[in-house]
Amino acid sequence: xxxxxxxxxxxxxxxxxxxxxxxxxxxxxxxxxxxxxxxxxxxxxxxxxxxxxxxxxxxxxxxxxxxxxxxxxxxxxxxxxxxxxxxxxxxxxxxxxxxxxxxxxxxxxxxxxxxxxxxxxxxxxxxxxxxxxxxxxxxxxxxxxxxxxxxxxxxxxx
Length: 158
Fold this sequence. Notes:
Layout: H1 2-28, H2 52-63, H3 70-98, H4 103-132, H5 137-146
């Protein structure tokens, strides 16, 4: 009886994973690991290695950044790239240390990571808000749906 319950629970869990996997893969889309949906979602900019400059170049084209907006865009892109590099470095450091860390050290590393992610999100949000002031109304609408730092419900810290 107990084996049957355990078996059903395992089969049910496997079914959920099998049903959820295609949805997760579909959400990745053709825009790289994030599908153009913002930062820190899944393996996105903060959770995995991918081409940040290429992603930002694609966003720049999607938004139609003009010559008069270049400086503001560069400031935003530099902020996003710097934060991504910093977070990837922190992820790597923690990954390497986890194997030999004590429970208390792991807990501290995870708390530090959580605080760093909050700070990263705030930094990118501030840069995105500054960029918004230079965009046209049409660009703003698009930016609020796709730009890391603004697209909170679609990938940022989800």
